[in-house]
Amino acid sequence: MKKINSIVVIVFLISILVLSACSSAAPTSATTETPDPTAIASTVAATESPEGCLGNPDKMVADLKCQEITIAVENAYLPFNYILVATGEAGGWDYDAWNEICSRLNCTPVFVETPWDGMIQQVSDGQFDVGADGVTITDPRKEQVDFSDGYLTIQQKLLVRKGETRFASIEEFVANPELVLGTQVSTTNYETATQYLPGERIQAFEQFPFAIQALISGDIDAVLIDGIVGEGYISQNPEKIEFIGPAIQSDELGFIFPKGSALVAQVNLALQAMKADGTLDALNTKYFGPDFSITDQDIQ
């Protein structure tokens, strides 16, 4: 009995649904209202231009259609990237550079904090679209990742305590077996250090601020560091540290990408345009010039 009643109810409901579908599917007549073109345009714009898309029609050299680009940054490498203590906001050369690049490629930059040690491998594995953080272009690294064109040439230098008299060059440093050199792990600075010194005379730190503090406190005797980065630490501690001797090595910095990434050619177009119109020079002056005043005390 319950089964028969259920069948009757189901048939009745199906009939109602069929009638409703027929009435709603009536042919469109000539009097049907034309959709508002403005409403259509705004809907398309919202779909193609999500929040954070930075395309600037006056600057664009390619159109990535607001594609999100994940960019790995350490957020602890002045002046390339950092987090301000006062505001909790991120900033630095990498942030400004990629905002500018995306304005020329019509893309959305998404910055992701990750430790430097392991960043190159993570990019190689495709966990990020791009690695920033002032990566030196080297042949061994080219076996893991693809590089953009170089955007800045830097020199590796010895940073020492003010008034250092025990040595005046890397050669003299090497000649004194009692001296210990500090630098950051997994950097080309560390690789250069190993070309001159045995491992027991090199102290590798997770981040450069720790190496600088060890230098100032007398725990190590010098720090091997990129000149532009060292300048920032000198400006923070002009009475305590200085460079000594000639540059040890000259290197070029570039962005890194997973092997075969199509972004390399597009980013190179943006960098070429930034070089041509002076934007890249202005950016380098802003962050590596004498007016840059953010210090380790200002960042997390």
Largest sheet: 9 strands, mixed
Specify the structural class. Answer: alpha/beta
The helical percent reads 25-40%
Radius of gyration: 29 Å
Order of helices and strands: HHEEEHEHEHEEHEHEHEHEHH
Low-confidence stretches: 1-50
Number of helices: 11
Shape: globular
Distance between the termini: 75 Å
The pLDDT mean sits at 85
Strand content: 15-25%
The count of strands amounts to 11
Give a quick precis of the structure.
The protein is built from eleven helices and eleven strands. The chain is of the alpha/beta class and 300 residues long.
Tell me about this structure.
The chain is of the alpha/beta class and 300 residues long. It contains eleven helices and eleven strands. It has helices spanning 2-24, 37-48, 93-105, 119-124, 139-142, 170-175, 188-196, 208-217, 227-236, 263-276, 279-288, and strands at residues 67-73, 82-83, 90-91, 107-113, 130-136, 146-147, 152-161, 181-184, 202-205, 222-226, 241-257. Helix 3 (93-105) packs across helix 10. The longest helix is centred in the N-terminal third of the chain and has 23 residues, at 2-24. The radius of gyration is 29 Å and the shape is globular.
